[in-house]
Amino acid sequence: MIRLSGDLRGAEATRKKKKKKEKEGVTVVETVDLESPNVSLRELSRVSNVDSVPPPPPLDSPPLFSPPSLQDLASDKSALLSLRSSLGGRTFLWDTKQTSPCNWTGVSCDSDRPPSQRSNRNAPVRSRQLLRPPAALPPGNRFSGEIPAVLFSLSNLVRLDLGDNGFSGEISSGFKNLTRLKTLFLENNKLSGPLVDMGLGLDQFNVSNNLLNGSIPKSFQRFDSDSFLGTSLCGKPLGVCNNEGTVPSQPISVGNIPGSDGKRERGKLSGGAIAGIVIGCVVAFFVVVMVLMALFGNKKGSERTRDVDLGRTIKQLDIESPGEKAAVEAATESGYEAAVTGNAEVNGSGTTRKLVFFGNATKVFELEDLLRASAEVLGKGTFGTAYKAVLDAATMVAVKRLKDVTMADREFKEKIEVVGAMDHENLVPLRAYYYSGDEKLLVYDFMPMGSLSALLHGNKGAGRSPLDWEVRSRIALGAARGLDYLHSQDPLSSHGNVKSSNILLTNSHDARVSDFGLAQLVGSSTTTTNRVTGYRAPEVTDPRRVSQKADVYSFGVVLLELLTGKAPSNSVMNEEGMDLARWVHSVGREAWRSEVFDSELMSLETVVEGEMEEMLQLGIECTEQHPDKRPVMVEVVRRIQELRQSGSDQVL
Ligand SMILES: Nc1ncnc2c1ncn2[C@@H]1O[C@H](COP(=O)(O)OP(=O)(O)OP(=O)(O)O)[C@@H](O)[C@H]1O
């Protein structure tokens, strides 16, 4: 159950309103707490581009409470609607016309809650914890599924508490977007997979009692071991990792049992028990080392034999026995290699599997090279996990490991051949693929500058150079050309998943569209995941059947994103909870300058308002509700070219 607390409505709220008046339209996302039934959610609606986060109140200053204003209530409403929608909930029991959401089913409001602090959090307590509910309240909600992606667009978020829920899936790389985050509590959930380095300057962090495994990235090693108890993570501050990147034995604590009532009462074992465990670990370690040595000896022998007997190069991996597979997995230190090696090599039929390259590309590496390359996780998307693999100083590729591909070998190959045949300077080329029963890998050129989404909504901190109009409009033109090329192949061909994270950038900020053709390869359960919030055209019901006009709609949202600097996944553009497209449509032309255009753009000397207005008009036409009213992609390209041309003529 969600309850709204009035805890930010005191002196803190007053101070912020004053600051807001000083900086028109500027607000700050500060706290999101989904652990407690008392949730202050109004902050979800506060997204902006302030230069600095306001300083927290002193630790010992008592919070003051005052009745909520109408503006606060409207903001609470939109925050609740946004949260509800991001969690896949329905709002038919909520009368959104009511001024206050306090009467909505499942929502109750407290305006006089005293401050408290959590006793079990190990890191230093910072001021925001004064705003937390009393510890005596029953902890934990029952939120489940993946952590809502909408949270990753709240780039000014300072504190996020999702502890004591049922969240599952991997910890998303989307946390990287929360560049101001200081507190992240994810304990007591069902989060799995590795803990990736988020590059955040956190003061407080807790992922204890989850299903996480692998080694603890360096940036998290400064936190106390309590932050990782009850997981299978290893490395400092927990036990050293063995070769498989898992902790040899669980930390000694009552608190490492997920779901245990005693998880916050740290129990200590006797000296004898500890000595026994240590000796056991040492013996187990030597046994593992000896088994690995034996397995490696066999593997080398069998590869040599194959080389001679079958005439294959030893680069062609053909590991047939589960023992050999285990050895390779155990030997690797790279999570990526451990993750893909086994499945890629064991194909069930006993035949050698190879990477299949497209076009006339000279084959520069083999599957084994790829699997042995040092790699890092780039992120987890709708279709699987993406990795960056460095084969050598000159060869870097992005490898996408597809999930939920259920189609047969032949059908997959037919479809992927079509994708591989696409050849345009504004597309990310698919270089090769690998298919086996258990594993499907796609190999792309690695795009060094990342995605447009990261560029627009990622690091907003000091030191970031502003993205000027020339670069933004060039990206728009490049992406439009890439899409136009896809549409020109066949009247029915479409991208199906146009969004700013699928527009990647070269070193010179030229746009390359990625992920085309993938929606047709994966199962419906994958594509129906609502990761395209804000981009999907209203008429689309089956994400595997997206028309060209629906692509135009999604591209129009990207144009609006470029112009406003706002992420469409943050659907809270006003108290009605509109998405980006509907919000821009609702603002009159006279207010474009003050309300719509990204203030970062407007602050630059190079601002070209005429061009920006023309581009905004185009974005609005692309995002018309009715597909027939939207332009076709070739027309979009022509108009962007013209408006850029007229801008440069004026400069001349
Ligand atoms: N070829 C590439 N070069 C560089 N980065 C890439 C490449 N392909 C993907 N990425 C990055 O990897 C991350 C995950 O990408 P992926 O395409 O799997 O998911 P997504 O774009 O977030 O969502 P979706 O799967 O719905 O398209 C993103 O941050 C993306 O920018």
Automatic annotation (TrEMBL):
The chain crosses the membrane at residues 273-296. InterPro entries: At_inactive_RLKs, Kinase-like_dom_sf, Leu-rich_rpt, LRR_dom_sf, LRR_N_plant-typ, Prot_kinase_dom, Protein_kinase_ATP_BS, Ser-Thr/Tyr_kinase_cat_dom. GO terms for cellular component: membrane. CDD domains: STKc_IRAK. Signal peptide: none annotated. GO terms for molecular function: ATP binding; protein kinase activity. It is found in: Membrane. Residues 372-644 form the Protein kinase domain. The keyword Repeat applies. Keywords: ATP-binding, Leucine-rich repeat, Membrane, Nucleotide-binding, Repeat, Transmembrane, Transmembrane helix. This is Protein kinase domain-containing protein.
